[in-house]
């Protein structure tokens, strides 16, 4: 999990990450958190949802369909690949996303590592 290098967030637990990406938690350490997703089919997305959120792609679609239909939530914004996530997150301290560990560089800060 990465945030902007300018974010004040120091770390986050796997449980809190899951809650943020399922729309159940909006803040961490007093910072509003907006999750950013990778494209469907991306290996990082598959691994993230399987290991951290414990949901498959079909379970995830069903989950968000229910919440969106009832007006109780909105799925994370989808931006593309590791580089896309880094690019958008590096400029906004309120965004949180996941990338492959090999893609981590100085533009982002790691706050959770699986």
Overall description:
With 114 residues, the chain is of the alpha/beta class. It is 36% helix and 19% strand. The protein contains 4 helices and 7 strands. Strands 5-4-6-1-7 form a 5-stranded mixed β-sheet. The longest helix is centred in the middle third of the chain and has 14 residues, at 57-70. It starts with a strand and ends with a strand.
Strand content: 15-25%
Q: Tell me the strand order in the biggest sheet.
A: 5-4-6-1-7
| Order of secondary-structure elements | EHEEEHHEHEE
Give the overall silhouette: globular
What is the typical, i.e. mean, pLDDT? 94
What share of the residues lie within helices? Answer: 25-40%
Please provide the count of β strands: 7
What structural class do you assign from the helix and strand content?
alpha/beta
Radius of gyration: 13 Å
First and last CA, distance: 9 Å
Oligomer: single chain
The low-pLDDT segments are none
Number of helices: 4
Sketch the major β-sheet: 5 strands, mixed
Briefly summarize what is shown:
With 114 residues, the protein is an alpha/beta fold. Helix content is 36%, strand content 19%. The longest helix has 14 residues.
Topology:
Layout: E1 2-4, H1 14-21, E2 27-28, E3 31-32, E4 34-38, H2 43-53, H3 57-70, E5 77-80, H4 82-89, E6 95-97, E7 108-110
Parallel strand pairs: 4-5, 4-6
Antiparallel strand pairs: 1-6, 1-7, 2-3
Defining traits:
5-stranded mixed beta sheet, 4 helices, globular, single chain, 7 strands, two-stranded antiparallel ribbon, alpha/beta, 114 residues
């Amino acid at each position: 999990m990465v945030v902007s290098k300018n974010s004040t967030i120091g770390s986050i637990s796997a449980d809190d990450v899951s809650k943020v990406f399922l729309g159940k938690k909006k803040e961490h350490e007093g910072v509003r958190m907006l999750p950013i997703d990778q494209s469907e089919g991306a290996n990082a997305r598959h691994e993230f949802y399987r290991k951290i959120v414990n949901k498959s792609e079909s379970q995830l679609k069903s989950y968000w369909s229910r919440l969106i239909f009832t007006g109780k939530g909105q799925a994370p914004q989808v931006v593309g690949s590791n580089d896309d996530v880094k690019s958008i997150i590096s400029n906004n301290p309120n965004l949180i996303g996941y990338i492959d560990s090999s893609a981590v560089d100085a533009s982002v800060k790691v706050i959770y590592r699986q």
